[in-house]
Amino acid sequence: MLSYRHGFHAGNHADVLKHVVEILLLDYLQKKDKPLLYIDTHAGAGQYPLDSGFSAKNHEHRSGISRLRSAAEHTPLPAQLARYLEVIDAYYQDSGDANNYPGSPLIAQQLLRKNDRAELFELHPADYEELQRVTAGRARVHQEDGFSGLKALLPPPSRRALVLIDPPYENKRDYQTLIHSLNDALKRFPSGVYALWYPLLPRQESLGLEKKLISCVADNYLSARLEVCAPQGEHGMFGSGMFVANPPWTLRTELENCLPALAEHLGQNGQGTFSLSGKQR
Question: Which one of 27, 144, 154, 219 has the minimum C-beta count within 10 Å?
């Protein structure tokens, strides 16, 4: 299915959670000199104008980065959230356009070093072309299904990789494909770091996903969930989750420090809540 366009949701509360975790992972993994492979299985267009195009329809950024930035003007943020805004602002300075919100591939591009490598997957023709344009040859961009393309890249020669998996979930098969993809990836490259985003929706596929993800990794994972409102109807997203297989040992403390502030500042009408669970070796 190619109907999904992330531009409608750019910069919302789910993007904030996803990108905060992405930055924490990249910052940690780059403490070693050895090259890192970054893989984004559903990369999107790379950047999104917040006051025009798809974003202008619902202005979902007002529930996410815009709300967080407003909070930062009145109260100190935890270091992890300040770091997130720092990376976004650095992108604005480099691009010369403070209107475009960077997606996960361009956030990674801000942080990756010259000896690191990025492999990006995007099926939608228009988003694929835009992704090629905005990455400007600094990443390999593939117009193919990221679930399938991931197999050929694991294990990487450097034996170090961060894999971000965040399909649109418009097709219910994405939930099952995600589980198959994670199981396959862990067999090919057991020591990779895998970050999986998923929506919180009042439907069984979504609500039961965390338990299935845990069954894939058993004893080395962290699961962070951010709810910004009470569930509303079958299709309304009331939050999102980030599930990390083989997380860095520092990640739990980092998330314990910033998740309460995310729930406070992004929660709607005081309804923000969070949870953090996991096991680490």
Answer: 219
Is residue 175 in some structural domain?
yes
Does residue 188 fall inside a structural domain?
yes
Point out the catalytic residue in the list 166, 174, 184, 219: 166
> Is pLDDT of 4 > 60?
no
Residue 59 has pLDDT above 80, yes or no: no
pLDDT tier for residue 56 given thresholds of 50, 70 and 90 = low
- Does residue 149 lie in a domain region? yes
CATH code for position 258: 3.40.50.150
Residue 1 lies in a domain: no
Average pLDDT over the chain, rounded to whole? Answer: 92
The two structure tokens encoding residue 232: 């509303």
How much of the chain is helix, strand and coil, in % rounded to 5? 45, 20, 35
**Nearest alpha-carbon partner for 6 in 166, 235, 220, 181:** 166
Alpha-carbon distances, residue 131 vs 47, 65, 87, 124 (angstroms): 8, 22, 19, 10
Q: What is the C-alpha end-to-end distance of the chain, expressed in Å?
A: 38
The domain in which residue 143 lies consists of 6-279
Let me know if 127 is a catalytic residue.
no
Kindly state the greatest CA–CA separation across the chain: 49
Q: Does residue 85 have a pLDDT over 90?
A: yes
